[in-house]
Write a structure and sequence with these properties.
Blueprint: H1 2-22
């Protein structure tokens, strides 16, 4: 269960950083 939560955070954090850098 912990891995699932951690994986969702990473999955959302990666695209967020890409958008932040693109902007």
């Amino acid at each position: 269960m912990h891995d699932d939560i951690f994986e969702k955070i990473i999955t959302r954090e990666i695209p967020a950083k890409i958008i932040y850098e693109d902007e």
